[in-house]
Amino acid sequence: MSRLWSRFAARTAAVALLSVGVAGGFYLGEDRQSQRPGPDAQVAGNVTALDVDYRQEQQVSRQVRAARQQAAETRQRARAAAEKARKAEEAARKKAAEEKAAREAAARAAKPYDGPIPASCEEYSGNRKVGCALMIDAGFAIDQFPCLDKLWNKESGWNPKAHNRSSGAHGIPQARPGNKMASVGADWETNPVTQIKWGLGYIEGRYGTPCKAWTHSQNTGWY
Question: Which domain holds residue 58?
Fold first, then answer.
């Protein structure tokens, strides 16, 4: 009897243990299923991740655009500064050239001729010697004759018959028209003395001295 009872108790205990195990497995599986996210939760998570990625990409794009804009503005400022510097340098060169030209012009005006000064009119011959003597008689110093010599050598080569058909200029001083020299003498067409006297009077009245007349001729091409 006792042996039968023991067998019955053992079976009962086994069934109880089996029941507990099944129940435990059921609850464990249910707990795992409750911890596993459902389809809706997975979709929501994916959308959130995409949104974060999109926002990050937008932020990076804005940063890139801002950097490009800043670089473009920097290049533009650099170009503007370079252009400003170029114009300033060009203006400085132009101003320096103008100042140099002004100094040279002033130097020429102050001393139009810086070559050797003749000791007397005896150093010349022909119409030049006559012109030198008449210039001294007109009240000019000997140092003015080199300028007069250059001026009339340029105009006519000291030739009393030199004539410009296009302008009508005539004689050693190239009076235009030639008949202006008739105020000194009727032989103005061929007489070098008449022509030189008229030319000296013209120079004194218009420029003051032969060297000033020569300076004007150098600057403009005529006197």
Answer: 49-110
Total of domains in the chain: 2
Domain identity same for 177 and 153: yes
Q: What is the pTM of this model?
A: 0.53
Concatenate the DSSP letters of all residues of 83-141 into one string. Answer: HHHHHHHHHHHHHHHHHHHHHHHHHHHH-S--SPPPSSGGG--HHHHHHHHHHHHTT--
Burial class (CB in 10 A: 0-12, 13-18, 19+), 147: buried
**Residues in contact with 121: Cβ distance below 8 Å, sequence separation at least 6, in sequence order:** 129, 132, 133, 136, 142, 145
SS3 state of residue 175? strand
Alpha helices per DSSP H over the chain: 2-35, 39-110, 126-137, 145-155, 192-206, 210-220
- Note the pLDDT tens digit of each residue in 167-223: 999 999 999 999 999 999 999 999 999 999 999 999 999 999 999 999 999 999 999
